Amino acid sequence: MRPVRLIRTVAGMTQRDLADAAETSQPTVAAYESGTKSPTWRTVERIASSVGLACYPAIGAALTRDQERSLFLHAAIAKELRVRRTEIIEIARLNISRMRSVNPHAWRLLDDWERILHGTTSQIVACMLDPGEHGRDLRQVSPFAGVLTPAQRVAVYRSFRSAV
User: Fold this and answer.
1) For the chain, what percent of residues have pLDDT higher than 90?
2) What is the distance between the terminal CA atoms of the chain, rounded to a whole angstrom?
3) Is the pLDDT reported for residue 1 higher than 70?
4) Mean pLDDT of the residues in the chain
5) Highest mean pLDDT range out of 27-36, 47-56, 155-164?
6) Could you write out the three-class secondary structure of the chain?
7) Which residues contact 43 (CB under 8 A, 6 or more apart)?
């Protein structure tokens, strides 16, 4: 996921809202998100700072196609989390309980999810959308099964295909 899109998703804002906060234009934000324009690192930091976030450079392996698709799916779940937080946290906690009995080898990541679910919505979203190694590992044992309807998942997959 592109950094400006990630910032906007974590902040839960529209392109217009982010543009206003960062004192830039909505078409510029759209261009950064689509990849037709590339922001400098200083610009990414400024945009993040404008909405109370911080960005840190990370170096690691590029995301695989499956990892990119998982990130897209979790961005859609993040939108639902902002609207139905209590319900989604309950779904996640029930899923974690089920997952513990089926997959005892994932205890460390499930413990991480338990801790993450006690955070603020923005903190949960930031962990869900972390493009780093730990975020990738967390998404492999995502407790958010059942949050999106089948139709919503299909729409996310279509959107992903058109974006890459």
Assistant:
1) 77
2) 10
3) no
4) 93
5) 27-36
6) CCHHHHHHHHHCCCHHHHHHHHCCCHHHHHHHHHCCCCCCHHHHHHHHHHCCCCCCCCCCCCCCHHHHHHHHHHHHHHHHHHHCHHHHHHHHHHHHHHHHHHCHHHHHHHHHHHHHCCCCHHHHHHHHCCCCHHHHHHHHCCCCCCCCCHHHHHHHHHHHHHHC
7) none
User: Taking each helix axis from N to C terminus, what angle separates 15-22 and 3-11, rounded to the nearest 10 degrees?
Assistant: 100
Q: How many CA atoms lie within 13 A of 122 on its CB side?
A: 10
Q: How far apart, in whole angstroms, are the C-alpha atoms of residue 106 and residue 112?
A: 10
Instruction: Check: pTM over 0.85? Answer yes or no.
Output: no
For residue 2 the two structure tokens come to 């592109």
Q: At what angle do helices 65-83 and 85-102 cross, to 10 degrees?
A: 130
Whether the pLDDT of residue 58 is over 80: the answer is: no
Structure tokens at 82: 């902002």
